[in-house]
Amino acid sequence: MQISKEITRRSFLKKTTGAAVGAIGFPYIVSSSALGADGNVAASNRITVGCIGVGPQGTGVMRNFLAQKDAQVVAVCDVKSNVLQAARERVNKHYQSTGCAAYHDFRKLLGRDDIDVVLAATPDHWHVLVALAAVKAGKDVYLEKPMGLSLAQDQALRAAVHRHGRVFQFGTQQRSNRNFRFACELALNGRLGKLRTINVWSPGSSQGGSPEPVPVPEWLDYDMWLGPPLIRLTLKTAALISCGGSSPTMHLDLSPAGVCIRWTSRCGAAVKKLPARWKSKEKASGPLKEYATRL
Known about the structure:
With about 300 residues, the protein is an alpha/beta fold. It has a domain at about 45-175: 3-Layer(aba) Sandwich (Rossmann fold), CATH 3.40.50. It contains twelve helices and six strands. A six-stranded parallel sheet has the order 3-2-1-4-5-6, sandwiched between helices. Helix 7 (about 150-165) links the parallel strand 5 (about 140-145) and strand 6 (about 170). Helix 9 crosses helix 12. The longest helix has 20 residues, at about 260-280. The relative contact order is 0.10. Mean pLDDT is about 75; it is low at about 10-30, about 240-270 and about 275-285.
C-alpha cells in the first residue's frame, strides 16, 4: 500500500499543537493592517520609535511620528510622571492598543534592541548626553534644538554620529521647512536679482525666573531632571519646567550665559544659517560683512 507523503495544513496543526492548543489560546488572529493590507505598512517593516522627553515640544514632534504609516512609537520616557502617563495614553489611543511602554530613565529605553530611532526633546542640558547615549546604543536620532550648551559638546556628538554611522537630524525647522527651502532656492537661482543686503534677527531674551526655593513636586523626578550638575537647590523656576509654557523663564537655565545662550542657539542660529546657505562662491560677490545691533 502506498503511503501518501503529502502533509496538509490541518494535519500538521493537529500533530504539532495537540493539548497545547487550549493553553496558548490558539488560533491567533492577526489583523490585516499588521500584515500590510489596506495601504498599511507591515509591522516587520515599520521603523520603531522611542520618544525621550514628551513635554509640549516632544509631544508635538511625536505626533508627527504617529502620523507616519511606516513608523510606530513603541516607548515614551519622561521624568514627569503626569506627562509620561499622558504621552503613553496618547500613543495607545492612536494605535488602539496597550503596547506603548513608559520609562522614567532614558537608559532603559535605549537598552531595548527593538527600537530603531530615538526622538530626544529633553531640557537643553540633557540634549547631547541623551543623543550620545542613543548613538552609542545603535539608534538613529532626531534631536531638538539647541544641540548642546557648548561647541565642544556639539563637536563630540558630531564625531560620535560619524564614528557609529548613525542617521542624525537636528530640529532646526528653518533649515528644512518647505517655505524656507523655497526662499533659498529663489535666492540661489537668481530669482531675486543681485543680493546686496541680508537682514537677520533674533527675538530678545527675558529675565530669569524666581530664585525662591520650593518643594519638589511629587510628579517630578528632580534628580533625574537635573542630571550631572552638582546643583541641588530646588528653585521655583525649576518646578515649572515644561508645564506648558513657551517662555524661556519656564526653564532653569544651567548655561554660563543665561537665557541669552538659549535664544541664540534656539532661534537666532536657525535664522542666521539661512543667509549662510546663500554665501556660495557662485552667488556671492564683494565683501561679506556681519554685524549685530540691539533692537
